[in-house]
Amino acid sequence: MVLNKRIFRMMRENFGRYTGIILLIFFASFTLVVMGGIGQNLGRLLTSFAENNRQEDISFTTDYPISDIGEIERELGLSMEDFISMDVELSQSQTLRLISPNQKINIPALNEGQDLSSSGQILLENLYAEANGYLPGSTIEINGKTFTVTGLISLPNYIYPLKNPFDILVSYSNFGVGIVGREDMEASGGYLRGYTVRFDDSNTSINQQAVILRERLENEGVNISDWIDNRNNKRMSVPWASVTGMQSMSIPIPIAMFLLCCIIVGIMNRRIIRAESVIIGTFYAQGYRRRELVRHYMVIPVLLPAIGGLSGVLLALPCLSPGVNAMLMYYNVPFTGIEWNVLHIALGVLLPIILMGVSSYFIIRRQLSQTPMELMKGDKHKTKVNALERVVNLEKFKFNTKYKLREQMRSISRLLFLLFGIMGASALMMLGFTIQNSLNHVFSSSTEGTYDFAYEYSFRQWHYGTAPEDAEVFSAEKFYPEGNEIMEFYVTGVQSDSEMIFLEDLNGNPLSVNQTIITRPLAERLKVGAGDTVSVIGKRDGKTYDFMIDAVSGTQAGQFIFMPIAELNIKLGLPKDAHIGYWSNIRLDIPGDQLSGMKSLEDVENAASEFMGPMLSAIIAMTASACIIGLIIIFLVTSLIIEESKKTISLFKIFGYKKKEVRSLVLGGTVYIVVVGFLLGIPLMALSMGGIYGYLGEQINMVLPVIVNPLYIIICFAAILLTYEVSKMMCARKVDRVAMSEALKSNAE
Amino acid sequence: MFISAESLCKSYGSGDGKNDVLKNVDISLEKGHIGVILGPSGSGKSTLMNMIGGVDRVDSGSIIVDNDNVAGFDDDALTEYRRKNVGFIFQFYNLVPNLTVSENIEVCANISDSPLRLNEILSIVGLEDKKNRFPRELSGGEQQRVAVARAIVKNPKLLLCDEPTGALDFETSRDVLSLLQKINREFGTTILMITHNIAIGDMAHVVYKLRSGEITEVIRNDEIIPAERIEW
Ligand SMILES: Nc1ncnc2c1ncn2[C@@H]1O[C@H](COP(=O)(O)OP(=O)(O)O)[C@@H](O)[C@H]1O
Ligand SMILES: [Mg+2]
């Protein structure tokens, strides 16, 4: 059809705008396929690793070996395997955990090198080995003995290799895991004995089976410590938070962008048809059918998303593997390759085409439903004044402001496009910073402020007596609200004269620790306040305990109840001087086999800064993409405004407005909408962040506060304004190029 | 002389397609006078006026307006010249459709150092009660009066009107013309007006007849007829 030649002409004439739309769609489809794909592939790698290498369901330590493993396995339908482990300090700041080789549960996956074949050999967990430069063949000095690294491995129970299962951050320079022969450890003594359990019956809940197992063991007189199931074990649960995070972002962001594109394409369709209504009317009059004309005008609204979506998906495909591998810098899972999700790919290509096609179809049909006469009479909409323009009273403003505002109100759909676009882009930009800020806050509040000690030593069994010099005793027991076992928290007993723990009330006034204090995140999740009584189940014995809350502390340090140690001990039926650990300002000399964990707050801080490094580049990438999206959106709107106001621009020039004045009038108005959009972006971001955090927090039993930092808001605001200035610069030439003859041409309006 | 243009030449295109639009045109107009350029469509009237108004450039010749050689101005000087001295009125009004009547007038008041007061202008053009209307809600004659108000709000020395009544019916045309005449009398504004309606020549001090880019006749009227009395 001859008509189709016009398509190329239109493409050429609107090159900048169409490119902008294609880029937006490209970005959305890319995000959909890459983020969705990373989430899905990571999930798949985690699941298949857990299944194939028989990840544990439960692990615990005991003092004495369990003798009837075979019997328990048969009776309860589970696999149980014993292991021994010990932590050795390679340096002041580096701990290596040695574990004996497993055959039945938590089977290591060998990624590189060879399996152990003799004494004096070690397999190292991949991420630690890489961070510290160990390759197969290199040697490592452990307690005066030289070990040869034979291979690098992934361990199903150390996917996220945390030193303590309740830590948040890994630090490969501070902590690693290695597998050495049993005889090598037994020789040196001072090791822990533990068991891992995997239930055969995957239909019954792990909790139910765990309770039966524990009962049975305790009846046999087994003294259990460090009992933990894999849902509460962050070494295995944290990676799933990434999967969820990725998947929950992979759909809404692209859809929002597709919808934005629908609006702008709709605006442009309407404009083109109105501008060409005379020609269209003439075509009608000559016997063209509406169907034929609709089809003609549909070419571009289908072509743009097709190009954008297709190229987005095509570029996403090669990026998926590096994306998944970037995640594997945090999570040690064997990489077995990428699987494509046909649904994501199909959505990436088809969704924009369908959304834009359908919305355009209705707009175009409506425009073309006028009679040939109406169409030929020309543009009846051009000078129409919309309700918004009519209602708003601008009398108080100076002319320049008035003009700029009026120009924004000219088209409500254009206004909404800009507003929503900037809202989204700003929210996206602030999202990155807020994630960083919240995590930063969580990390720092878990070390600074609340606690004033350098080391935390946790015993495997209750100890009695007093603390050594420069140390305090504490006791702790896990509880959970009835019916919500995943929401475990500690009640910590502290010395009533403690100088190592500082709590403030919600207004920042110091609280005496000689009372029962609940932290704010826990109070919020349990929905309790001062004066209330909390009724919870003890993790260890399944009995119900009541705690009367005296005060709520504003600390974000985590989910805790703090109370005087003597009171807690009495509740637990323990002697007054019982304690489970020390807080200390100096290193204490405690035999490793007595300890279930040692935490150095300095290490935690190091881990935080180690984590924040790569995080920062992710945030920069996020901010940059948000800026580019914002830039395209402002550019699209501005270029439409320029085109629609060509005649007015030309008039301004004839009347003697200077270049700068014209530019400011025409390009300056969008700034109001940009600012409003940005401001509305703040609550949008806080709301969506709250939603995501709530979800993630539940998954990994952690409270992630949405903390909006004014400094970051200002930085983002500056970035948005900068974006706006850049788009203004890009459009300034367009304004300059509008000729005075535009208004002098003596054609009727 | 307030305006004196000599040997103006202008052509568009080149080679075979070269179109000589103005060939050695001379015109002049005294301060405070009304001048009319009369001629058929395509004769070069608008081209001539655009050059005097400083929106187009001459190929050769000189245009002296109030002792300045406009033909020698650069772009910035032309902008300054139009801003300070010239008011424009067009056949199709050229109002900004999304601005109200008073806002349309402000477009020009905004760049003037000492604009007339808005209410004063509105009463001169008789649109006090319509100042918050949008152009679309006005008749053609009313729209043209808004355009007149916009042109004179900065009290320009020179008012250029390109077929100001070209789109109006007889009655409305006469209203607009008498408004222009009133402005000429009250403010002493020099007015140069294009028309192809010979009757309008009667209200001018001087009429230049233009045909194919050449002045064919110059008529000087000793007696100026009030616009209300013009008939066609
Ligand atoms: N920008 C231009 N480019 C080419 N030709 C032009 C241009 N402007 C005017 N012309 C030509 O100059 C001639 C005179 O035009 P114009 O001054 O508008 O006539 P009038 O106003 O008397 O109707 C016409 O033939 C027109 O086609
Ligand atoms: Mg003309």
Which labels suit this protein?
heterodimer, A: 749 residues, alpha+beta, 4 domains, 10-stranded mixed sheet, 23 helices, 22 strands, B: 232 residues, alpha/beta, Rossmann fold, 6-stranded mixed sheet, 4-stranded antiparallel sheet, 6 helices, 29% helix, binds adenosine-5'-diphosphate, binds magnesium ion, transport (chain B)
Describe it for me?
Chain A: It is a multi-pass membrane protein. Chain A: It comes from Sedimentibacter hydroxybenzoicus DSM 7310. Chain A: Keywords: Cell membrane, Membrane, Transmembrane, Transmembrane helix. The complex is a heterodimer of chains A (749) and B (232). With 749 residues, chain A is α+β, with helices and mostly antiparallel strands. Chain A has four domains: 199 residues, no CATH class; 159 residues, no CATH class; 203 residues, no CATH class; 131 residues, no CATH class. Chain A is built from 23 helices and 22 strands. In chain A, strands 1, 2, 3, 4, 5, 6, 7, 8, 9 and 10 form a ten-stranded mixed beta sheet that branches. In chain A, strands 11, 12, 13, 16, 17, 18, 19, 20, 21 and 22 form a ten-stranded mixed beta sheet that branches. In chain A, helix 2 packs antiparallel against helix 11, helix 8 packs antiparallel against helix 15 and helix 21 packs antiparallel against helix 22. Chain B is α/β, with parallel strands linked by helices. Chain B has one domain: 3-Layer(aba) Sandwich (Rossmann fold). Chain B has six helices and ten strands; from the N terminus they run βββαββαβαααβαβββ. A six-stranded mixed beta sheet of chain B has the order 6-7-8-3-9-10, with helices on both faces. In chain B, strands 2-1-4-5 form a four-stranded antiparallel beta sheet, covered by helices on one side. In chain B, a hairpin with a 2-residue loop joins strand 4 and strand 5. The two termini of chain B are 31 Å apart. The model of chain B has no long low-confidence stretch (mean pLDDT 93). Chains A and B meet through helix 14 and helix 19 of A and helix 1, helix 2 and helix 3 of B. The site of adenosine-5'-diphosphate has 11 residues of chain B, from strand 2 and helix 1.
